[in-house]
Recover the amino acids of this structure.
C-alpha cells in the first residue's frame, strides 16, 4: 500500500477514535494534565492513571521525546501511548528533533505491541506552544519516514482538535504527495 494512502487527517476528539493505539501528549510526570491529556484520562477512566503511576514508580518520569504504553481503559482504543513533547523555547533548543522523536518512538512502540493502526494528536501545539505550521511539518515528515522503513502499520491518523491544525495538516500532507 502506498504510504500516502495509510495517512489520514481527521478533525475531532481523539478519545472517540477506534484504533489500536491513541497517542497522548503527556507531561513528564505522566500524572495527567489539561488539554488532550486531561480528555484521555477523563474518558478512559482511572485504569490509565494507575498504569502510568506504575511506570513512573519503575522508571521515573518520562523524558522529552520518549514514549510509554498503557491500557486504554474505557476508551475504544486498545492502548494509550504517552509521549512527552518539547516545550517551545524559540526553536534553537532541539525542539524539532525532540518532536520527531515523539512520533518515531510512539510508532515504534505501536509496532512492538502489534498495533496496525494509531492516532496522534498535534503534539506540543497546545500549552507547550510549538508553532502549529512547524509542528505539522515535523509530524508529517516523521510519520512518512517511519512508514517508508516499516510496513507493519496500516493506518496512521492525525486527529486535529482545532480547525487551524486540521487545515495546516491537510495542506502539508498534500504538498508531500
Ligand atoms: P501540549 O502540552 O503537548 O501542547 P495540549 O494537550 O495542550 O498538549 O495540546 C496538544 C494538542 O491537542 C492541541 O493541538 C490541542 O488542540 C489538542 N487537543 C486537545 N484536546 C484534544 C482531544 N480531545 N483530541 C485531540 N486533540 C486534542
Amino acid at each position: 500500500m502506498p504510504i500516502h494512502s495509510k495517512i489520514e487527517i481527521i478533525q475531532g476528539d481523539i478519545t472517540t477514535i477506534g484504533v489500536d493505539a491513541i497517542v497522548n501528549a503527556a507531561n513528564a510526570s505522566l500524572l495527567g494534565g489539561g488539554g488532550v491529556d486531561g480528555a484521555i484520562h477523563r474518558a478512559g477512566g482511572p485504569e490509565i492513571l494507575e498504569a502510568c503511576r506504575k511506570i513512573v514508580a519503575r522508571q521515573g518520569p518520562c523524558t522529552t521525546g520518549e514514549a510509554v504504553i498503557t491500557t486504554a481503559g474505557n476508551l475504544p482504543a486498545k492502548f494509550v501511548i504517552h509521549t512527552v513533547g518539547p516545550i517551545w523555547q524559540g526553536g534553537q533548543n532541539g525542539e524539532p528533533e525532540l518532536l520527531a522523536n515523539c512520533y518515531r518512538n510512539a510508532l515504534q512502540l505501536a509496532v512492538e505491541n502489534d498495533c496496525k493502526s494509531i492516532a496522534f494528536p498535534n503534539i506540543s501545539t497546545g500549552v507547550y506552544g510549538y508553532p502549529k505550521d512547524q509542528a505539522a511539518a515535523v509530524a508529517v515528515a516523521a510519520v512518512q519516514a517511519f512508514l517508508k522503513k516499516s510496513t507493519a502499520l496500516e493506518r496512521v491518523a492525525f486527529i486535529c482538535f482545532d480547525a487551524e491544525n486540521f487545515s495546516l495538516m491537510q495542506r502539508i500532507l498534500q504538498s508531500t504527495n
User: Anything to note?
Assistant: The mean pLDDT is 97. Residues 13-15, 25, 35-37, 39, 85, 121-128, 159, 161-162, 165 surround adenosine-5'-diphosphate (CB under 6 Å). The beta strands are 7-11, 21-26, 67-71, 79-84, 117-120, 155-160.
